[in-house]
Amino acid sequence: MSNISIGTAGIFIALFLIALRVPIGLALGLVSVLGIAAMTSMNVAWGMISATPFDYIGQWELSAAPMFLLMGYLCSTTDMTRGLFAALRLALARLPGGLAIASVGACAFFAAAAGSSVATASAMSRIAVPEMLRNGYDKGLATGTIAASGTLGSLIPPSVLLILYGVYAQVSVGQLFLAGFIPGIVSALIYMAMIVVRVKLKPSLAGHAVITVGAEERRTILREIWPLPVLIFSVLGGIFSGVFSPTEAGALGAFIAGLIAFVRGQLTRAAFFEAVRQAIISTASIFLILIGSLFFTRFLALSGMPTAFSNLILSVSSEPWWILLAVTVIYVVLGMLIDSIGLLLLTLPLILPLIETAGMNPIWFGIIVVKLLEIGLVTPPIGLNVYMIKSALGNLVTLPEVFRGVGWFIAMDFLTLLLLILIPALSLWLPQLAFG
Description:
0% strand, 21 helices, mainly alpha, globular
């Protein structure tokens, strides 16, 4: 067999193993080692196993990922979002679908402190969905709002997906964080506008309850707003002003989150160890996928598949619209089957050479890719955020109800994606302003 044939077979075998629910890192690593051994020798494959993982995982930039995860899980286990959601609920109560709009806003704020879609969806599903259901909201709207808004954690900085893309594509994580800020806000505003229009057209979606808050409760709510804004300002303000790097910001953010929880009297031993446990599990999972994807990159490069794939796409047309359409189809289809981190690291070895050949801006393209990954987080049959919400809510809702609810939000995601493609300045204005 030629190297190209081995590379093609390796891709299909990896996808088959992933479809069988073999862990993505293990599937990619196994295929890569056997593929490299077939093309060269087993000694070469063992040499890669012994040297590559430590050199790659030891990169300083990657240490930001576990720190931001710890920060997000500390916010989640110590209930920092509850006060902010209550304040937004109070401020937006008069709008059609006010509770759902408040949920979108709270998810956006929490995303800026968590860096993780799953952490955002998990935290907000336990706070916002029961509140909406108690007030007569349609189950699809209530759960769909949180499932879709939770994906904002992938785009609004600090985002673990943006960190991984930046390290893998060798572009500035700081510029990616700046590039994701406006698209994340635009996504949230489009969600909010859609909710207002839908509830205006069909008021029964948002129930008929009138939310009233007494003066003492109002004062209590206002006193509980400060934790997340302080944390977000400390982390993002430091990054955007250049006081410290994204890696340093991750460590500082985890420390400040713990300090805020301690001051509020909510940093119990159980909450702290649960946050650490979840951060360790998530970090180990991400790093295993990273190692597997690194092996896969070496395997594909040796086979010549990235060049062959680029030539195949460009043989149809070299126009940017065609390349973006091809990339969109790949991510939407595979996003239905593979989780976002695994999909990102599985496809980058093939996609990045294509983008370099086409001369596209890697910062702008990174935001497009992350937006596509957001869509995959809520599309059936493997919408990770949907399953997270079903797990958190138990028998309160069914999976079909949640998937029904996210349909409108997926349509809005494609609208946002179109805007990001047609108006690159939405992604590039802040990085150009800060870095020239």
